[in-house]
C-alpha cells in the first residue's frame, strides 16, 4: 500500500543530498525501515527509532546493511552519538498529539551535530482540505497480494484532528482472505503553526519544498510540506 502513496527513490535521493558521504543518519518514526535500508546500502551508518514493537521486529527481520533499530518513543530516545542527518517523513509527525511535537523537535535539535541537517515532512491544513473525500475505495496490488482499502475521513474540529477509519480486505496469493480494521488521527497543522513549532524548538528553516523532487511548495495547498532545517547555536535560541 505504501508504495502507492510514496516515491522511495525520490525520498532516498533527497536524503542522500543532505548527508555527507558515509555520514550518520537517524530516522525518528522509522516504521518498517524502508528508507534506512536504502541509505544503509549506500554506506551510511543508520539508526531507526519507532514506538511500534511490531514495526521494529518486522524491520529487524528484513535486515539491512549498516542499520540498527531501537524500540522507543522519539522524544525519549538518547544516544552518545550526534547525527549528520535527522529526519522524520511520511507525515509521521502529524500522528503525534500537538503536546508531543515540541519535545520531539527538541530531541531532534539535540541529536543533530553542529552543521547537520534535519528533514521533516508534514501534512498541512490545505493538504488535508483539498484531499478530503468522505469515503474512498482503493485497490493495491503487489507480489500476488490484493488489498482493498475502504476508508472514511472525518474532522474532529475542536481538537484540530483528521480521523481516518479503515477496513482492509487482504487476499493472499493462495486465495486466503483476511479482514482488518484500523483508525488513526492526524493533527491538522497550518504552515505558520509548523514554522512556529520549529522556531520554538531552536531550529532554523533553510528550505521548503512541496515534495522530495524539490518541487516548490504549491500555493494551492495540495501535497506535503518538506522542510530542511538546522539547529541554532544555544545563544541564538
Summarize this structure as a short list of keywords or feature phrases.
237 residues; alpha/beta; Rossmann fold; N-terminal domain of TfIIb; 7-stranded mixed β-sheet; 4-stranded antiparallel β-sheet; 7 helices; globular
Write structural notes for this entry.
By secondary structure, the protein is an alpha/beta fold. The chain folds into two domains: 171 residues, Vaccinia Virus protein VP39 (Rossmann fold); 61 residues, N-terminal domain of TfIIb (Single Sheet), CATH 2.20.25. It has seven helices and eleven strands. The strands form two sheets. It has a seven-stranded mixed β-sheet, sandwiched between helices. Strands 6-7-8-9 form a four-stranded antiparallel β-sheet, with no helix packed on it. Helix 2 packs across helix 3. The longest helix is centred in the middle third of the chain and has 14 residues. The termini are far apart.
Look up the CATH topology of the largest domain: Rossmann fold
Helix- and strand-based class?
A: alpha/beta
CATH superfamily of the largest domain: Vaccinia Virus protein VP39
Name the beta content range: 35-45%
On the 0 to 100 scale, the average pLDDT is 90
Per DSSP E runs of 2 or more residues, the count of β-strands stands at: 11
What is the ordering of alpha helices and beta strands? HHEHEHEEHEHEEEEHEE
How far apart the termini lie comes to 41 Å
